[in-house]
Specification:
single chain, alpha/beta, Carbamate kinase, VC0802-like, 2 domains, eight-stranded mixed sheet, five-stranded antiparallel sheet, 14 helices, about 35% helix, globular
Amino acid sequence: MNHITCKFGGTSLADAEGIRRAASIVEENPQRRYIIPSAPGKRTPEDKKITDLFYGWHSLVEQDLDASEPRNIIRNRFKDLAKQLGLTVDLDRELEIIDEQAAAHVEPDYMASRGEYLNGLLLAELLKARFVDPLDLIKFDEEGFLDPVTYERMGQALAGVERCIVPGFYGSLPDGRVKTFSRGGSDVTGTIVARATASRLYENWTDVSGFRMADPQMVPNAQRIEEITYQELRELSYMGANVLHDEAIFPVREPGIPISIVNTRAPHEPGTMILAQREPRTPVCGIAGMAGFSMINIEKTLMNRERGFGRRVLSVLEEHGISFEHVPTSIDTMSVILKDEELGNHGPSVIKALHRTCEPDNVNLAHGLALIATVGQGMAGRIGMAARLCSACANAGVNLRVLDQGSSENNIIIGVEEYDLGKAVRAIHDEFAE
């Protein structure tokens, strides 16, 4: 179908001016039929997030404490928006219902979802669009996973609707209780609606004109990414790139619906297109890095000839409930890289267990590691990519602790000292940016 699904983030809908701007974008193109709003975002750094205020409201009620402060901030915020936009939504009645539910000790997910719900009501009146509550359309199973019946229910409910508002972030469990996605989950609602309505495009309206090749906080002049595939985006997201919600890709990936990341404040600037396939113009499309890793180094002569050695190492981690990230090996050494949050305070007990289970020559645990992923379909089959990356880091005075390239050749992972993270990302960006 020739329809477009649009999701507007919290920063785009933070104030009346932003909501008017979003409405203007929608009205500019009649193909923009399905609109997913987030809760209003922060207007200033000192602002409280609406969702956090709703959680606070719930928490105070559960402790039999006075919840008037978060309740009043929320009430005033939405009342001010309605007044500035000239809307007549009965917010007093809506907030009264929320207050009654909070007093009845409703689940926290219900409270967390009300920011999107109330903002949806405002936007629906402003655009003269139908308000469609996703509560009975987005279904989760008993374990909290999305039920595929969602797509059919949503598609049937929105069929033939000229323009509608579907609040993001929430649906319901089999018993009818509200269930939210994890934070940022309005992205997921948007892609669900896009798939259910067979939209030709999903537009994600935010406060930036597309993604950058590297984190602008590390590389202020980072080049804009024009096109990126779902798979490349997943690789970058996993290594900490703040792009889309992790689960947002899955609904649109199978039908191949493209995603456009565009700027609400500069709607006619080019953004970033996320596609199923693309024709690589340059070898690297993005670089993402994050600190907070540790590395267990295990030495044992001729370990490669010892059956089950690697299995015993990993079984120790499994017994401690620890997941690992990478396992670089050589003839006499094996390293295991894991997140510090996974390792927690289990380091000493893991080392003891490895000595007992694997009888190595030596084991040590090194902290302070950062991992950097250099991603791009254009790297596959190109001679010298790893050499260029290593040379760039060497020229910047960065020592590589780890180097790992997968068989697909679309991703090179390096490990550096945490204090070298920004320096390494800048060096790699400058080497591969056009």
